[in-house]
Amino acid sequence: METVLCPDPVIKCPDLPCKAEQYVAPCVGRPVDLVFLLDGSERLGMDNFQHIREFVQKVADRLVLAKNKNDQMWSRLALIEFGKENELRVAFNLTHNREVVAAGITALPYLDSSSAVGAAITYSIDHILGKGRSRKTRRGAEISFVFITDGVTDSSSLDEAVSAMRREQIISTVIATGSDVDNDILNKLVMNDQEAIFKGEKLSDMLQPSLFDRFIQWVC
């Protein structure tokens, strides 16, 4: 496609991002529904919580979002924060609206709680994605769950929740920082795909171009 559309991108296609892989517009030409599940446990800390806000906003700024609610292409985002079972905060449901995303990120409180990731997965499948006539995802959309957690969580019902992700054909990614992580939980969340785990010494590392660009390429 690049050869046909941009045989000489500098001269013939100066406005198209065809010069190198890193310039390819993210998630072009296909629908991606991206759901962030944020661990709001006390282990996270307020500084890391702020870095996560910046990270999700940066992702929203980078991706090409759907043009309107009926657009069947491009990306949409959702963000929920989970604490202990039944303690959830939805910053915003699946949306293309950048103002809704920015307002939701700004207003999201830090739970500073314990966490139960299995319950958060089940809630997201039932309510963020929806079922039957209440289905909120788009036809043919790739559904991607991005977990931001150290994996230290109540793991009850986790196996059932991961099985539900498999049934829904959800692609999962984990962002974790530091050395004090529960790798067994992280591996379960990504269904044993080691390449889907992004690690840094601290969450602010995800804002650096090397990790951030790799994350964008991964989810796209």
TrEMBL record:
GO terms for molecular function: extracellular matrix structural constituent conferring tensile strength. Residues 33-215 form the VWFA domain. It comes from the Eukaryota. InterPro entries: Collagen-VI/PIF (IPR052229), VWF_A (IPR002035), vWFA_dom_sf (IPR036465). This is VWFA domain-containing protein.
